[in-house]
Amino acid sequence: xxxxxxxxxxxxxxxxxxxxxxxxxxxxxxxxxxxxxxxxxxxxxxxxxxxxxxxxxxxxxxxxxxxxxxxxxxxxxxxxxxxxxxxxxxxxxxxxxxxxxxxxxxxxxxxxxxxxxxxxxxxxxxxxxxxxxxxxxxxxxxxxxxxxxxxxxxxxxxxxxxxxxxxxxxxxxxxxxxxxxxxxxxxxxxxxxxxxxxxxxxxxxxxxxxxxxxxxxxxxxxxxxxxxxxxxxxxxxxxxxxxxxxxx
Length: 248
Fold this sequence. Notes:
alpha+beta; Creatine Amidinohydrolase
C-alpha cells in the first residue's frame, strides 16, 4: 500500500531531509586521502546526532554503521572499516536520519582529489540521470516515467543502470511502497499522486549493469570491477514540480 503524506508530515520529512543534505555537505568537506572509511563514518554519526536526529542506518536490519560508504567499484552498502580512502577514488556516501519518527534519505558520490575524466563524467551523468527522474516526478505521470527518464540518460552514454537495486517510498519507515526502479517504460507502474514521497536513487556503472554482493552480505560491487556512482534525493509529489526534501 502506498501511504500518502499530509502537508504537516512532509514538513517533518523536510527537516529529516535537511539533516541528510547537511550531512552530505559535511562529509564532502571531511573526505581526504589517508582517512579510513570508519573515521569518516564516526564523523558522520557525530554530525547527524548534533542535528537532533537519529542515524537511521545504524543497526537497521543489522547494518553496523551510520553511513554506507562505497568506493570505486562498490555500488552501495559499503561497510565502514579499515579501508583507506585514496587520491583518485570515487566515494559514495549514503545516509539516513530520523526526525520525529520520519525518515530522510540521500546519497552523493564524491571524487577524492584529482580523479580521472572518466570518473568525473560518470558522476556528472549520474547526477543528470537523477535530475531527469525528478523532472518526471509529477502528479498524473506514471511511476515508470521516472524510471524511463533515468535509464535513457544513463544508457545514452553507454553506462550500465543497476537493475537489482531500486529506489523506494519513504515515510515513517525507511522503505515503503512503491519500489522505484531506475529502468522501465514511461507508462508502467502506479499513477503519481500528491502526497507520495519517494527516494529516487540511480546507481550507474561505468561498465555492465550487473552487480554482485560480497561475502559480508552487504557490500554490492560491479560485476566487472569498473567504477560506479550513486546519487539520491527524497522528493514529494506536489501539484507542480517535485519538491526536493533532502536539500541542506
